[in-house]
Amino acid sequence: QLLEIVRKEDVVLRAVLTTHHHWDHARGNEELARLCPGLRVYGADERIGALTHKVTHDQELTFGAIRVRCLFTPCHTSGHMCYFMWEDGSPDAPALFSGDTLFVGGCGKFFEGTAEQMYTNLTQILGALPKETKVFCGHECTVRNLKFALKVEPENEIVKKKLSWAKQRDDEDLPTVPSTLQEEFLYNPFLRVTEEPLQKFTGKTDPVEVLRTLRTEKDNFKKPKERPNPQAMLAFDWGLFSPFLEKK
């Protein structure tokens, strides 16, 4: 799919920026490197497939007019790197490619790190970026994230509106990404750990402990089951489906 886009846009693929080594983010690297000789693959973890250039925190890269700042955010994996991009003099907002660290309405699981690390990632590193920054995350799990956010803050009107919007986008098969950093602070529970409703929900006041408890709650969160269609249930009760059901 990527190479088809490259062909349609009539451009040459020169480099790949990989956030972390998980297969659903890096599995195409080896094949791309084979098909595009000389391809540069950037990342911060030796486990990234076809890695050619290891980057470090705050390192800056330039691709034509595009400037990239590498932001090291270990926790989801020990070698997770986010990429902040902008063009000097451009009216467009800068962009953050946040991989599995920051999602629309959520954050990544702490597979190889701690709540302390994620707190630093979300407050001092990503949270300190310009508020108009567009957030391009690694997965579309917005509806599920916002259902959890609503459980945490049932009175938050912005959460309700964003969830309703995200459901509609989902129904129409349209993306919910990107959001903006400014928006995330209004409905993303993992960025709101100092707010009173979050402390009340978790029973904690220390921001790191609030974050740790939130992540545990989110890991165990089961989205509400869709209620079965009442007409279908009646049809089952009346045996209308019996001719189509085989007995074991």
CATH class categorisation of the largest domain: Alpha Beta
- Element order, helices and strands? HEHHEEEEEEEEHEHHEHHHH
Number of helices: 10
The class by helix and strand makeup works out as alpha/beta
In total, the number of domains comes to 2
Residue ranges: pLDDT <50 for 5 or more in a row? Answer: none
Radius of gyration: 21 Å
Query: What percentage of amino acids are in beta strands?
Result: 15-25%
Q: Could you say what the CATH architecture of the largest domain is? A: 4-Layer Sandwich
How confident overall, as mean pLDDT?
93
Helix content: 25-40%
Name the CATH homologous superfamily of the largest domain.
Ribonuclease Z/Hydroxyacylglutathione hydrolase-like
- What is the topology, as strand order, of the major beta sheet? 4-5-6-7-10-11
Biggest sheet features: 6 strands, mixed
- Taking the alpha carbons of the first and last residues, their distance comes to 43 Å
Question: What overall form do the CA principal axes indicate?
Answer: globular
Number of strands: 11
In CATH, the topology of the largest domain is named Metallo-beta-lactamase, Chain A
Organism: Sagittarius serpentarius
Cofactor: Zn(2+)
Protein name: HAGHL protein
Domain Metallo-beta-lactamase: 3-139
